């Protein structure tokens, strides 16, 4: 399936440094920054620097280096923020919206890392 990536989307502009972001972590192929409208005390977005619309596009087209880097960047944020699940009640939720049914607002792959409070069981309403 062809993926139509718009290089003018807001996260592409963040990757190019055209608009500012509050960086949490940067790796060779990924960038993590605080969400502008946090839905929890910790709300970090992790994106690949490459031009991928969503997870499906990324898995189909990204290099193994990019995929590994993205996975490790997510873990890097969890580690940097001290969110690893443990006896002291920490933990986090990952959300990746895709397409219309997933209500994806920004058409550049991103994963939401949410933490800092106990969340509802699911977000399907
Ligand atoms: P989506 O619904 O696409 O999964 O979520 C997009 C997220 O991007 C939202 O949580 C929204 O607050 C965040 N967002 C949109 N524009 C900006 C921006 O310019 N900077 C940052 N840091 N976050 C943004």
What's the layout of helices and strands?
Elements: H1 10-15, E1 23-26, E2 30-34, E3 42-48, H2 55-61, H3 64-80, E4 93-95, E5 111-115
Antiparallel strand pairs: 1-2, 2-3, 3-5, 4-5
The protein binds guanosine-5'-monophosphate.
Which labels suit this protein?
alpha+beta, single chain, 5-stranded antiparallel β-sheet, binds guanosine-5'-monophosphate, globular, about 120 residues
| Mean of all residue-level pLDDT scores | 95
Fraction in helix: 10-25%
* Widest β-sheet, arrangement of strands: 1-2-3-5-4
Largest sheet: 5 strands, antiparallel
SSE order, one letter for each helix or strand:
HEEEHHEE
Q: Which stretches are low in confidence, meaning pLDDT under 50 for 5 or more residues running? A: none
Rough outline: globular
Cα distance spanning the termini: 29 Å
Q: How large is the radius of gyration? A: 14 Å
Helix segment count? 3
Number of strands: 5
Structural class: alpha+beta
Q: Name the bound molecules.
A: guanosine-5'-monophosphate
Please report which band the strand proportion falls in: under 5%, 5-15%, 15-25%, 25-35%, 35-45% or over 45%: 15-25%
Description of the structure:
There is one protein chain. This protein has 125 residues and is α+β, with helices and mostly antiparallel strands. It has helices at 10-15, 55-61, 64-80, and strands at 23-26, 30-34, 42-48, 93-95, 111-115. Strand 1 (23-26) and strand 2 (30-34) form a beta hairpin. Residues 10, 21, 33-37, 97, 103-106 line the site of guanosine-5'-monophosphate.
